[in-house]
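Render Neuroligin-1 in 3D.
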Amino acid sequence: MPQIVTLKFDCNACSFLFAGNAGFLQTTTQQGNYAIMDIVAALHWIRENAGAFGADVNRVTLLGHRTGAVLANFLMLAPVASDLYHRVVLLSGSSLSPWSFQRHSKSNVRKLAETLRCLKNGSTPQSPGMSPSLTGAGSLPHRSGPSSFLGGKVGAFSDTLPDVGPCLRQVSRDELLSAVNKLLFAPRFLARFGPLIDSAVVKSDFVAEMKFDTSGHFSRVPLLIGTATVESFGELNTEDIEDGLAEGKRDRILRTFVRNVFVFHLNEIYSTIKNEYTDWEKPRKDFIDVRDSILNILSDGLTVAPLIQVANTHSAKGNSKTFLFHFQYEPDQSVYPNVSKLSFFHDKHALYFSIMN
């Protein structure tokens, strides 16, 4: 029987908050990605202690679901963890997904630090004082680069921010998370918090590093990727899931998706996606048909296509084997009559995979 160790982390400011440029390396590295470093520490613990529980420390499999898969994918590129695992499983997530990392970490923490009085006049670190009332804020500015492509740099930092970490650590967790929830937003389909480009654990050219694998870390171990039939139920509300939605609402969601995820040729991309995911042999479409089309669009664009891209890149090296599985779960039609053809419980494949192994 395999031994399963569950590593938990919070996908919020406490795990991924950018805290300013680090010491004398202010122009090259940033503080953050605490959740990733916690996982590295846990992997060290497993290597040192798993034998006492009857586990083989030379057969450690790193498995992640959604954001966990993103972190596992980034660890495949990190030399700091290269000898701590021997196989990787990515379920419903990868570093190439548009939501895989935060793109406005510096503006986020500057806004937060000023509100909590850890920055004076936007530049000088301060000790925390009485926080002003939190009245909310507008959406973040539109990102300046593509979400995922093979080649080039993604989200590199161009300026520095004073080290506000010591000040923020004096703020209570409740006050910090309250400020985060009221102040910080992200465009739809993108991440408010998650891994950030710190030039240490996650490099600005991680996409090119994955493609060319100059270090040999990415293709060093066997990789299994898994996906469910539909990965995007969380993007729609319960009413739309159960009753479907009109074409006008579908088109608005699609426009938002294209605007936030892509950079160039937005009209052409919008028209192409809408055409490819429309069943032209069925002239009259009910609300359920329209719902299914937008679910398929979001599933492919946000999760499945990036996963396949990671698998193709891994297999092209030929250093280790690459595997793929597809999970489909048929729910009880008496309970969910309108979702019988879809994998409504799309997160169950993580549980099934654990049981089978």
